[in-house]
Amino acid sequence: MNGDNLCGILGHIGNIEKEDFEDALELISHRGPDSFETHYSPPFSLGFHRLSIIDISEKSNQPMHCMGGRFSIIFNGELYNFIDIRNQLVENGHTFRTDGDAEVILKSYIEWGENCLDSFNGMFAFAIFDNETKETFIARDRLGIKPLYYLSTENSFTFSSEPKSLIRATNAAFRLNHDSIVSYLCFRYPVSGSSFFEGVESLSPGHWMKLEGFRVKETQKYWSLRETLDKPKISDPLEAISLVSEQLKRSVELRMVADVPVGAYLSGGVDSSLITAIMSNSSDSPISTYTIGFPNTGYNEFEYSRSVSNQYNTKHTEITIEMDDYLETLESLIRLKDAPLGVPNEVPLFLMSKILKHDITVVLSGEGADEIFGGYGRIFRSSEDNRFFEKWSKDNFESDSELGRRLNEIYGRAFQSEVDRFLHLYRYTPAVWLEKLVEPNLLEKFNDGESIQKFHETFSDVEEFDIATQYMYVFEMLHLPGLLQRVDITTMGASVEARVPFVDHNLVELAFRIDKELKIKWNDGPVDLIGLDSSENHDTPKWVLKKVASELLPNSIIDRKKVGFPVPLADWSEKEFSDMARERILSGEMIGSGIILKEGVEELFSLEAKNHQEAMIIWMLYNLEIFIQINKNILSEIL
Predict the structure, then answer these.
(1) Which of 288, 494, 617, 633 has the highest Cβ tally under 10 A?
(2) Cα 556 versus chain centre, distance
(3) What is the H or E stretch that residue 72 is in?
(4) pLDDT per residue over 105-134, tens digit each?
(5) Secondary structure of 104-167 in the HEC alphabet?
(6) Where are the beta strands (DSSP E) in 494-634?
(7) What band does 584 get if pLDDT is binned at 50, 70 and 90?
(8) What long-range pairs does 403-409 form, CB within 8 A, spacing at least 24?
(9) Where are the alpha helices (DSSP H) in 374-479?
(10) Phi, psi of 253 (to 5 degrees)
(11) pLDDT digits (tens, 9 = 90+) for 552-577
């Protein structure tokens, strides 16, 4: 058996009316429709909406209290190794009333204090209350799979799985977080970890927090990926392949255990196909798989997912959506997320989750593989482009050669630091468009603000390592959290639990010990091309993972170039979506308040043939406008 507590949690320390607390809890009922419980005893008010996965009996409902009533817990997540920990606790004299993992976490904390976190393997956000000392211990899993937002005021402390509950619990107005807004336009989500509401923060992954009453006493980091990089490197290909194969199999099998039906997303890419293969080989009956796409040519991967499904005899469901389905769902998903959507595929993932909920409750997904195995080949290989810089920078990369032309086209200038070059490559909205679209003072503050500083701090953690390793580390620490936030809301919004085998911390630590040459591996040695041109043409991203997959999947799956999750934004931008977005943005709150400049928006829409990047900027502005309009009544001011 495994965990039982995928849910929504809400806690308030301080005075609050019971009706306000219960109304705030109800706003996250989608996260756990099977049952809800509250413990209203100010200064501690605890609430829990449960999605039953294992030990689905009422005895595992929360809030849960220890014998004697001193300690109470609310917990969202899964502890995959809880049986081993439970057995150790039994040896130490503990007894148990339930068969689930919440009680194991509670008694682990009673036995070992904050050190209990060192032995946990799972995804979790939980709080334990000491009703005797009025102290609270809050923790979040190592890589941030499960969310935990909090709001600290002069006379209270509130935390929840989603910002909307915090906002309702406090009945206060909030300022728009400008750093988050510009970070969204640059990087698709707030890199700082903040929400879009000033004051509503999130506990950083791999951290715990202690409170005395409603005052934060201490916050500490309990897990460091950086320490893994100091361990001996794995450079032998056969050893690396064997270790990855073994650890991935264990990670998948741990996440298959549940008392409800379990399935998998199957896009037809290497990551989801490999998970499907391992699940099928570990299951006595056919597993359920799901894929979704658009009818537009080139905007679905049905051919590839169907191939894997046929190979492993899965119960496969293909879902096709139209533009109207997409646009009708987009606004409701923004409302659900308390944020503009970060990537266009969030809508189809949410729609797929709603459909698969009819058959299964737990779904395995492939997020996290690209970050640890070098899957973003074009940007990771671009880490080596600086080998060309000295030669070409003498005359600003100008040259008659193809290499010089491409260096000038992609870079065009020298960079003050490796961070600056990375951001130049990583931004989704180019600097030239940011300057045309964002209010100048906001953009200036952002460039000196928290999100950009986070990149500098993260790079400084690993500055002694090769640049490709630095890039992968930054992606794992700063890019992955945005993907995990997407997975959480698109599944929990449909009352489905997503599990992500590639984000198992044991697998992550193993991957960061593997030599980067076994991840992004040259086919016949280095070539004199920039990374954007050489990747997947002259090298193999995720080489070691593809070698693992070669025992289970055909070459037609393994040798495919990375395509992401295609959404036909450029096609739509030439159709009615363009007119709808133009009207809403130009007459909306962003331009009216001055945070977005009208002249820049008009220039963007005036482009006759919009490429994918320009269509993406329009899509992001449209999302942002909808988000602000939805929350207008609780925003005290926008600019």
Answers:
(1) 617
(2) 28
(3) strand 71-79
(4) 999 999 999 999 999 999 999 999 998 999
(5) HHHHHHHHHHHHHHHHCCEEEEEEEEECCCCEEEEEECCCCCCCCEEEECCCCEEEECCHHHHH
(6) 497-499, 521-522, 539-540
(7) very high
(8) 403/528, 403/529, 403/530, 406/529, 406/530, 406/532, 406/533, 407/530
(9) 377-381, 389-392, 402-410, 418-426, 431-437, 440-447, 450-461, 467-474
(10) -65, -35
(11) 999 999 998 887 777 887 777 667 78
pLDDT 10s digits, 41-69? 888 899 988 765 554 445 656 688 888 88
Q: What is the distance between the alpha carbons of residues 121 and 414, in angstroms, rounded to a whole number?
A: 44
Question: Which of 350-364, 571-585, 624-638 is predicted most confidently?
Answer: 350-364
Tell the burial category of 528 from Cβ atoms under 10 Å away from its Cβ (0-12, 13-18, 19+): exposed
609-535-145-168 Cα dihedral, nearest 10 degrees? -20
Q: Please list, in sequence order, all residues whose beta carbon lies within 8 angstroms of the beta carbon of residue 527, skipping any fewer than 6 positions away.
A: 534, 538
Determine the Cα–Cα distance for residues 408 and 420; give it in Å rounded to an integer. Answer: 16
Angle between helices 480-492 and 346-356 (to 10 degrees): 40
Residue 139, token pair as written in the block = 């923790």
Tell me the two tokens of residue 18: 């019971």
Angstrom distance (rounded) from CA 412 to CA 325: 41
Both tokens of residue 638?
């926008």
Pick from 617, 592, 593: nearest CA to 603: 617
In angstroms, the Cα distances linking 531 to 1, 330, 379, 411, 528 are 46, 34, 7, 12, 9
Provide mean pLDDT across the span 180-196.
95
Q: Which helix (H) or strand (E) holds 211?
A: strand 207-212
Q: How many CA atoms lie within 13 A of 273 on its CB side?
A: 30
What is the C-alpha separation between 493 and 486, in angstroms, rounded? Answer: 10
Tell me the HSE value of 437 on the side-chain side, using a 13 A CA sphere.
24
